[in-house]
Amino acid sequence: MYLQLSTWPDIEAYLKHSSGVVIPIGSTEQHGPTGLIGTDAICPETIAGGMAEQDILVAPTLSIGVAQHHLAFPGSMTLRPTTLIAVIRDVVASLASQGFTHFYFLNGHGGNIAPVHTAFAEIWSEASLSSEPSNLHLKLGNWFAGPRVNRLSQELFGDADGKHATASEVSLTWHAYPEQQRDAELEPRRAPDGAIRDAAGYRANFPDGRIASEPQLATREHGRRFYEAGLADALEEYRRFVSPAEG
Ligand code: NI
To answer: 166 C-alpha vs ligand 1 centroid, how far in Å?
Structure first.
């Protein structure tokens, strides 16, 4: 069930049997010469699409994240960490005001992890400082870090999956958008590894945008398997999260 394809009476009816919502969150940033700029938003959005088929409400994807280090590559966009924190607080407050209690952010971008957790801390702080007990439950799930996805990445690519513009995420985007598959010779075959600071330093150290990865190993068939693994991981984590025993 997609929020954007629902009416308000649909959502009022949904709230009678569930107060949980999935919010895909990603980034709009370069993913090397063969990876789509939307990769980090497309991956969680695609997996959330499978959750939407299971009568779980999926909100619109928050597609712009904290990606300042990619700005030296055309097409990349960033929010400041403080902006993303403010967006998350407002999104949660909006739906919480109508009775939603369980917010599961399904994330596709490492740079969002710290600001999302900080947003959660801000929301808890507001409740604690006002002495108003909160009934909110907030969770961040990273599709790329689930147990089935990690096992599949190890099995298919081992160390070659790398850190940015990975074969896993590129495969998943090609499963979602087969017509967008790209082929190119990448040199060196395995991209360099190292620390990330600002945008100019990133482009100097990682000239084609990849970090430690070999996206040449990506295929649509691998992408189908990452979709299935990512969906099973996310469904398991979400169901545990919204269950009365653990939520
Ligand atoms: Ni990525």
So the answer is: 7
What's the one-letter identity of residue 78?
A: T
Looking from the CA of 187 toward its CB, the CA atoms found within 13 Å total 1
The domain containing residue 173 runs over which residues?
Answer: 3-246
C-alpha 134/C-alpha 132 separation (Å) is 6
Q: What is the mean pLDDT of residues 217-236?
A: 98
Q: How far is the CA of 111 from the centre of ligand 1 (A)?
A: 9
Residues bordering ligand 1, an ion, CB closer than 5 Å = 39-40, 169
pLDDT in tens, 97-152: 999 999 999 999 999 999 999 999 999 999 999 988 899 999 999 999 999 999 99
> How many Å lie between the centroid of ligand 1 and the Cα of residue 80?
18
**For the domain that residue 212 is a member of, what is the CATH number?**
3.40.50.10310
Among all chains, which residue has been given the structure tokens 């395995």?
190
**Structural domains counted in the chain:** 1
Task: Starting at the earlier edge strand, list the strands of the sheet with 20-25.
Answer: 20-25, 102-107, 137-142
